[in-house]
Each structure stands twice: as C-alpha cells, then as structure tokens.
Automatic annotation (TrEMBL):
Function (record text): ATP-binding RNA helicase involved in the biogenesis of 60S ribosomal subunits and is required for the normal formation of 25S and 5.8S rRNAs.
Region (Disordered): 1-35, 575-596
Superkingdom, natural source: Eukaryota
Protein name, UniProt field: ATP-dependent RNA helicase DBP9
Catalytic activity reported: ATP + H2O = ADP + phosphate + H(+)
Q motif, short sequence motif: residues: 35-63
Chief subcellular location: nucleus
InterPro entries reported for this sequence: DEAD/DEAH_box_helicase_dom, DEAD_box_RNA_helicase, Helicase_ATP-bd, Helicase_C-like, P-loop_NTPase, RNA_helicase_DEAD_Q_motif
Domain Helicase ATP-binding: from-to ranges: 66-244
Listed CDD domains: DEADc_DDX56, SF2_C_DEAD
SMART domains given in the database record: DEXDc, HELICc
GO molecular function: hydrolase activity
Compartments in which it is found: Nucleus
C-alpha cells in the first residue's frame, strides 16, 4: 500500500505544469525562511482579520495550498483532521473574490460554490468566512443555504446575489434546477471532506451540478484520505491538479499536537463500570467526547451516568439541526464537559449493502442522505482533552477520524478505547452490542494502520480492577434502572424537548441571541427509578492510595444546619437569660424530707 502511495504522488507531480511542479517541490522541502501570511501577498484587510483570529502562522497545509491557489491552480489536498484545511481554501477564495470585485466593481454574480456533506459543516464554514470578512465591509458576502428552511427563504437569500454560497450538493442542485441560483459567473468550486461527500451518496448530484457549471473553473478538493471516490471527483472536476499529500513527519514538525492512544480490554458490562469510575472520580481532566455506535446506546449511557449525578449532553442524528449546532457551539464554549455522540455517517458507510441490484444501491443512498450527520467528521470541536471510544468503531478509518477530534491545532490529547475480547462478548446480554463481537479484528486493523501511516503506538491502559471492583455493586444497581422502556421514553422526551427548543432557537438566533445561553442540552432525562444515594461516593469505596488526591478531606460533617436562623438564635439566647421557673414540689416528686 505504501508503494501505491508513492506511485500516485509521482504521477501527480508529472501531471502538474512546470510552475506548479516547482511550487510543489518547494513545498515538499522546508525552506530556511518560514512563510507567513504577510509574505503571501494577501489583501491587508484580510491579513488584519487573520491577525484578529490569532492565526500566528500558517499551518503546513495552508503554507503549501494558499500560494498555489493564488496562482490559479486546481488543488487536491490530503491532510489530517484539525490541520486547518478549511482556512487553506477559504483564505485564497476570499482573496481572489476581492481582486475580481475591485477590477469589476459593477459586475454582480455568484463567484464561489462550497459543497460540504453536512449542515453542521456548512454552518462551521460560513462562520469562518464571516470571521474573515469584518474589514471588507460589503465587498464580499456569503450565505448558507444548507439549513432546513423553506424555498422562499432560500430564494430571497440568493436573490441578493452573494459572492459565496455554502451548501450541500442536493440543496445546490435543487436551486440550480429552479433557477434560484445561476452558475454562469461561478469561477471557484470547493468540495470539502471529498471522501465523505461521496459516501453520503451525493455522486449523482455532483455529476448533475458539474454539467451546469462553466468549463473554466478553479477547483479545490479537500480530504483527510485519498480514496477511489476522491479520484473519481478529481476526474470529474479537476484538470491538472496540484496534489498535496502531506507526509506525517512533515505534519509532526509543523504541528506539535500529539494524541496518546490507549486501550482497555474489558467486558461489555465493565465498560459502564469504568465509565462511572473515570467520570465520577475525575480521572480525566478537561472536556471529553464519548463515542458510541448507536442512538439507543447514547441514551443508555446518559441515563446510566445520571444515576451518579454525572451530567452530559447527547449529539446524534435524531436531534433537530438547530439543536445539534447549538450543542456543538456550547460545548466549544466550555458550558458542557462531557458529550456523548454517535458518528452515524461512518457506521452507515461501513454497512455491507449488496451491489447486485439497483434497488439496494438506491436504498443505501437514501439511507445515507437522510442522516446528513457525522460527529466524527468535519465538525470543529475545540479544546477536547480526551476522546473515549466507549464502543470501538467498525472501521479503522472511523477510528482515525474519531481521535482526530482531540490533539488539534498543536494541542495534545488522549484517546482511550474500550475493546471487548471475543471470549467476553455476550457474557452480559443486557449491555452487549452486536458490533463489539468484531472488536479484536478491528483493533488489529487499527493498530496496523496507526503504526504504518501515523507511526503511533496504541498502549494498554491498566486499571487496578481490585479497587474498581468495589464500585461494581453500585454499577449493577444503576444499570438495572436503565431499562429499554426507560431508554425509549428518554429518547422521546429528549426529542420533544429539543424540537421545542429548536423552534425557540430559530427565533432566538434572529431576535435575542443572549437568550441562547438559557437553553441547555444536558438536562437530566431520569430513568424509571431514580436512586439519589448513588450520586454520592462513600469514603470507604475510594482507593486508599489516591484518596487524598481525589477528594478533599472535609472531616466530620454534621447533619444539622451549620448556621442557625437569626430569630431562633435570639430566642435561644433569651431563654438562657430568663429566670428559672419555680417548681411545685407536689408535682415534681422531688420534694426533700423535712427534718426537725
């Protein structure tokens, strides 16, 4: 496989024109002088916005891609998650539009089309574009038509003729077909997360869009992996693209971020036990994303942790798009520290669908397009300390994208994965998951890929199970309360709450942005049987060696109220100062004998 990569890179360098080849060669070898945004010849208004975003210096993919893009070259860039691929195409895109608008100020047209696989990624991309436009006034405008809004609203957004349109392929195609969007003036097309956009079943939509676009275009294909689908897109849209395949050693030099990877081999039930111990005793510091493999599992883990007073919010394809965007936004603002997420896109892509009938292909396409969601891809989660693979993903590629949520932008992170050995699978049926049956096989693929392409070693993380076993009876007590009925009711309750909140969010985004802080997503859903005593950890359960570091010794805590009421205190003082009452000796039975 390594030889294939080398041959593909060699082929790519042969197809690039002489200036592009020399530029690519110079990008391959680190120059003695470090490139900066100022040295790229960007507009000063754009440089000012970049400085405001505190982008100190370009990342590796930005350093290589932006100069080539400004020369007008088509680009196919493969770079790891969190390497700054979005800014690598947005910055030269805005620069090119500024130049066009200043040379042709009276000509109005949609200049750039950015195609993304999910609505979350569309919103994230538009946010970055707007953050780069505060000093350009109304010279450059961008809109996002990927949101689930009515056609008249889309028509009104496009009627103002924005310079940049961000959307999913299906929404762009529908607006091209009903003439809301004109493709005549488009000069740039970006396909972000190119490998994922094909796995969603957008191939037919992309082919239809390509037929309506002008012949002379500058195309950017951005992807974390170079697959056969990406090569198909290259043949469909590009002509002589500059292929930037960033080597891992170069990325390591340019980005000091490191992800330490660990695994724990345990039974299905022990996953819940270890999750309780980890989060209740704060063994992981900072924000955590816990990935599970289906939506029911998402709510089972949330309800289980609620029994111990551990708050979390969920992120899955069931939730309305506005709620999903709000969850991500508030998680990035550190309002929540634990997020339980599913990555439906990668799980659906891993399903085996027969290819012998057209019906099966159509059903696969429909199923993938209906979700338009994937938490492990594209979404920019900020300052994530740990990714917990509560359920091991079903593919090695999905594992790579999951752990890419941490260790971003030069920060370090940790990835911890629970792996179920084949001899322990099915020993606890209530907690078993079908996909866990193949954990050992998937783990071997993951270890091989991480070692081969990333030079990373996955180490065992050893828990002292003798100390952990002390918490087992509490785990069993909490797990029994989380029944299938409780999960179904919690899922319905969460969906109803979020639908109502989503309607409020639509208005709040437009009218009262400050009210968004009052809409929280980590409210308790409650299982059928709430056990309040589980929220407190008895001192005798804590490991003796780490007891002082885990909890502060408060000493004896009285059950009585520490500070008395002011009025009660005054009354008590008054009684103490009052004269003692005279006691009737005939009623006290304590009369002393009188002697003569």
């Amino acid at each position: 496989m390594g030889s294939k990569r080398k041959s593909s890179e060699a082929t790519a360098s042969n197809t690039v024109s002489a200036p592009a080849a020399s530029a690519a060669a110079s990008a391959e070898t680190q120059s003695s002088e470090k490139m900066t945004f100022d040295s790229m010849g960007l507009d000063q208004r754009l440089i000012q916005a970049i400085a405001r975003l505190q982008f100190a210096e370009p990342t590796l993919v930005q350093e290589k891609a932006i100069p080539l893009a400004l020369e007008g070259k088509d680009i196919l860039a493969r770079a790891k998650t969190g390497s700054g691929k979005t800014a690598a195409y947005v910055i030269p895109l805005i620069e090119s539009i500024i130049r066009i608008k200043e040379s042709k100020p009276d000509e109005k047209a949609v200049r750039a089309l950015i195609l993304v696989p999910t609505r979350e990624l569309a919103d994230q991309c538009l946010r970055l574009i707007n953050n780069l436009l505060p000093f350009t006034g109304k010279l450059v405008r961008a809109v996002n038509i990927a949101q689930n809004v009515a056609e008249p609203i889309q028509r009104s957004l496009l009627a103002e003729i924005p310079d940049i349109v961000v959307s999913t392929p299906s929404r762009v195609l529908s607006n091209l077909n009903n003439s809301n969007l004109s493709a005549k003036g488009i000069t740039h097309v970006v396909i972000d997360e190119a490998d994922l956009i094909m796995s969603y079943g957008y191939e037919d939509d992309l082919q239809a869009i390509q037929k309506q676009l002008p012949k002379t275009l500058q195309v950017f294909l951005m992807s974390a992996t170079l697959t056969a689908d990406v090569n198909n897109l290259k043949g469909m849209f590009c002509r002589n693209p500059a292929i930037l395949t960033l080597h891992e050693e170069e990325a390591a030099d340019a980005d000091s971020g490191k992800v330490d990877q660990f695994i724990v081999k345990c039974s299905e039930f022990d996953k819940f036990l270890l999750a309780y111990v980890i989060f209740k005793l704060d063994l992981i510091k900072g924000k955590t994303i816990a990935f599970v493999n289906d939506i029911d599992r998402c709510y089972r883990l949330k309800l289980f942790l609620e029994q111990f007073g551990i708050r979390s919010c969920v992120l899955n394809s069931d939730l309305p798009i506005n709620s999903r965007l709000h969850v991500v936004d508030q998680f990035n603002k550190n309002i929540y520290s634990l997020l339980i997420a599913t990555d439906d896109a990668d799980q659906l892509a891993a399903e085996e669908v027969p290819d012998d009938t057209n019906a099966s292909k159509k059903s696969k396409k429909r199923k993938l397009k209906d979700s338009e969601y994937g938490a492990s891809r594209g979404i920019d989660f900020k300052n994530v300390s740990c990714v917990l693979n509560f359920d091991l993903p079903t593919t090695a590629r999905a594992y790579t994208h999951r752990i890419g949520r941490t260790g971003r932008a030069g920060n370090s992170g940790m990835a911890l994965s629970f792996v179920v050995p084949s001899d322990k699978w099915g020993t606890h049926k209530a907690s078993s998951l079908e996909s866990a049956k193949k954990d050992e096989r998937i783990l071997r693929r993951i270890e091989k890929e991480q070692q081969k392409y990333h030079g990373a070693e996955i180490k065992p993380y050893v828990f002292d199970m003798k100390q952990v076993d002390a918490f087992k009876y509490r785990t069993e007590d909490a797990f029994r309360a989380v029944t299938k009925t409780a999960i179904r009711e919690a899922r319905m309750k969460e969906l109803k709450q979020e639908i109502l909140a989503s309607e409020k969010l639509k208005k709040a985004f437009q009218e009262n942005p400050e009210e968004l802080e009052q809409l929280r997503h980590d409210r308790e859903l409650h299982a059928v049987r709430v056990q309040s005593h589980l929220k407190h950890v008895p001192d005798y359960l804590l490991p003796e060696a780490g007891r002082k570091s885990l909890v502060k010794d408060l000493g004896f805590v009285s059950m009585r109220k520490g500070s008395e009421n002011r009025i009660r205190k005054a009354r008590a003082l008054h009684r103490a100062r009052a004269k003692p009452k005279r006691v009737d000796p005939l009623k006290s039975f304590k009369a002393k004998k009188v002697t003569k």
